[in-house]
Amino acid sequence: ADDGYDLWLRYHPLEKPLAARYAPAATEVVSAAHSATADVTRAELVKGLSGLLAKKVAVGESVHQAGAVLFGTPENSATIKNLNLPLGQLGPEGYLIRSAVVGGKKLTVIAGNSDVGVLYGAYRFLKLIQTHEAIDKLDIASAPKVKLRLLNHWDNLDATIERGYAGSSIFKWWELPEHVSPRMVDYARANASIGINGTVLINVNASSLVLTQEYLQKAAALADTFRPYGIKVYLVARFSAPIEIGGLKTADPLDPQVREWWKHKADEIYHYIPDFGGFLIKANSEGQPGPGDYGRTHAEGANMFAEALAPHGGVVMWRAFVYSHEVPDDRIKQAYNEFKPLDGKFLPNVILQVKNGPLDFQPREPFSALFGATPATNTGLEVQITKEYLGFNTHLVYLGTMWQELLGSDTFAKGPGSTVAKVIDGSMFGYKQTMMAGVSNIGSDRNWSGSIFDQANWYAFGRLAWDPEAKADVIASDWVKQTFTSNPAFLKPVTALMMGSRETAVDYMTPLGLAHQMGTSGHYGPGPWVDSAGRADWNPVYYNRADKSGIGFERGPSGSNAVAQYFPPLSTIWAKPETTPENLLLWFHHVPWNYAMKSGRPLWDELVGRYDQGVANVDAMAAEWLNLKPYVDDERFALTADYLTIQKRDARLWRDASIAYFQSVSGLPLPAGVKKPP
Ligand code: GCW
Fold first, then answer.
1. Which of 58, 117, 561, 619 maximizes the CB count within 10 A of its CB?
2. In the chain, what are the helix, strand and coil shares in percent, each to the nearest 5?
3. Which residues belong to any copy of the Glycosyl hydrolase family 67 catalytic domain (predicted)?
């Protein structure tokens, strides 16, 4: 049985001929370094090589035989120093892997400027073997383009997870600090293997308790466990903590006592966690406390924390996900309206954390207008790995394509080529801090992510945070090879299935630019008819605006004019339905049901056609998977097959319920050839 616990770090024995090919190039693992990080690097190489090659791999401090794998930095290895490798361009976390000959012996060198860079190189070396690449003439250099590559856990202290679909939290606070589960080591290994270098342990809707001494000691135990893997711990600071756990009467960021309290709190945290990363803060958003409660701006709020953390080198990640139903404006405009005027007012260790789209992790949104609009404020990206709006853990939806679409989007902030990737990697505006965060999909399920294919989304997040210009298909194919097999009979169809899966979900959930059509509390199934969510900006009807005359949200100049928040030419291209790409048509425009689409079909027929296409594609995915049984172990095969059956059922529900509702307002008959659902 294979429950998927090993993720993509599977070191099962290669087939004999392959193992025989690699064995001469992996005879021994050599390093004289003995830091905590060097020790875990050695352990990983030994575990990986002896597993894959099904033999005992020797360990030593100096090279004894040809085929040695030598790892280290110029500081801890004279051999590496003497090789004069071009490590200058690699920064603190990059690595270099080279085939070399030293003292007449062929060997592989894994080098970096720091032990953590070397660890990343070791994972890359193991991946080469896992994916059956040649390793005899290596010359690989890689360095991360984004500095902070973080998971955001929406885990509560009681182990429930907000929007978590893979069991309960892996962080068992009640057992800490005395017991740190061995799973924490595997968590760190998995993250390090894809370059993730930080983790926010708790939910942005936070409890102040995590900042009490008792919990700081617990967090410190986790930090100690993660440190060798290059992973820093971050916490959420609840704005009202000075009142809740500090006994103060106010949390006003301009109050000297409050400022003092946060300074002491920061000092205390660094006492327990000397390399603490910093705070993530959700303020004045969805009912959370914030500086607005005291008539202060987001900048005044963020800077208070920034001052407290600056002496220790910590950062503040201030979320831009703010909107309120008391503001009469279109919800998607509010973050920009709030933050654009504050550009340049934040201290250098503040990072504005912006969700990919202006609404909320929908199956498809345009990029947030804040990307490119804040040249004087470090601006980072938040994506959601957990699939809150994409079918939880049961629907097979690979998010690599969605993030690639986002990162490749041109903001035109500095003319053509001003992609979101170039904004967030800092190259466009010279940001001092760069950051990409992913809301984690990790839980206590044996397979970590709730399904096998959701592991791919964790993996893709890490890869794209390392290189926001990496390609989703390459990432998918690497993941399939590491997680299942390199056999093309499996690899090709499964990669193709993953690559099409997000568009398929868009088709059966929210085609043509529709958004926020889910049932309102659970966020799982459809609810386009819902108009009673408690407030207008949570109602699906507010977003689809379907009526007798047509469907869609008018955001051109005759509507909310959200298009004006974007740089030209987008502000004009998106202003008119004729020039708006059809996959965003109903996001930007309210158009009549008979609006002529590029296919020649009227909008209504096109819409119904898209829902049908989505269902047909899921059916094809499920059928394809059944063909692949010979290549997969029973347990992972069956879980995936069952979930695809659920996805088939759900896709039909989405289609049929959505069409039934829209038909009830349009009054139109089903297009010719479409059968009524049974
Ligand atoms: O997507 C929404 C979720 C909330 C979440 C919020 C946020 C953590 O439904 O559960 O709260 O976004 O990002 O703050």
1. 117
2. 45, 15, 45
3. 129-448
Alpha helices in 54-134 (DSSP H): 78-82, 115-130
Structure token digits, residue 557: 């100049």
Torsional class of 70: left (φ above 0), alpha (ψ -120 to 50), beta (otherwise): beta
289 phi and psi angles, rounded to 5 deg: -70, 160
> Ligand 1 within 6 A of 360 CB?
yes
Can 28 be counted among the known catalytic residues?
no
Residues 154 and 274 in one domain: yes
The answer on pLDDT for 119 being more than 90 is: yes
**Maximal CA-CA distance, the chain:** 83
CA distances from 143 to 112, 116, 117, 169 (A): 10, 12, 8, 31
Two structure tokens written together for 262:
């946060």
Instruction: Find the catalytic residue in 330, 360, 554, 612.
Output: 360
Alpha carbon of residue 550 to chain centroid: 35
Is 360 marked active-site?
yes
Residue 460 CA, ligand 1 centroid: distance in Å? 21
Question: Are 137 and 159 within one domain?
Answer: no
Coil, helix or strand at residue 419: strand
pTM of the model as a whole? 0.98
Binding site membership of 355 for ligand 1 (Cβ less than 6 Å): no
Residues 253 and 381 in one domain: yes
Per-residue pLDDT band for 678 (boundaries 50, 70, 90) equals low
Mutate which of 388, 389, 390, 538 for ligand 1 pocket (most atoms within 8 A of beta carbon): 388
The tens digit of pLDDT for each residue in 409-422 reads: 999 999 999 999 99
**E strand residue ranges, 193-305:** 198-200, 232-236, 278-281
| Tokens 């885990």 sit on residue | 155
pLDDT over 80 (residue 544): yes
Strand-pairing partners, residue 538, are none
Residue nearest to atom 12 of ligand 1 (CA): 360
Q: pLDDT tier at 534 (50, 70, 90 boundaries)?
A: confident
Q: Which two tokens stand for residue 325?
A: 């139903």
Same domain, 101 and 132: yes
Assess whether 324 and 345 both reside in one domain. Answer: yes
Chain centroid, CA 70 distance in Å? 33
Which domain CATH number covers 97?
3.30.379.10
Number of folded domains in the chain?
3
**Could you tell me the distance, in angstroms and rounded to a whole number, from the CA of residue 313 to the centre of ligand 1?**
28
Range of the domain at 31: 16-142
For residue 569, give both structure tokens.
Answer: 């030419």
Please give the structure tokens belonging to residue 534: 């408690």
The residue to which tokens 């071009």 are assigned: 86
Half-sphere exposure for 13 (CA within 13 Å, toward CB): 7
Among candidate residues 75, 133, 214, 286, the one labeled active-site is 286
Helix, coil or strand: residue 216: helix
H, E, C per residue of 311-360: HHCCEEEEECCCCCCCCCCCHHHHHHHHHHHHCCCCCCCEEEEEECCCCC
- The reply to whether ipTM tops 0.90 is yes
Q: Indicate the burial class of 161 (C-beta count within 10 angstroms; 0-12, 13-18, 19 or more).
A: buried
> Considering only CA atoms, which of 407, 396, 384, 524 is closest in space to residue 458?
384
Please classify residue 460 by burial: count the beta carbons closer than 10 Å to its beta carbon, then call 0-12 exposed, 13-18 middle and 19+ buried: buried
State the amino acid at position 469 in one-letter form: E
286 among known catalytic residues: yes
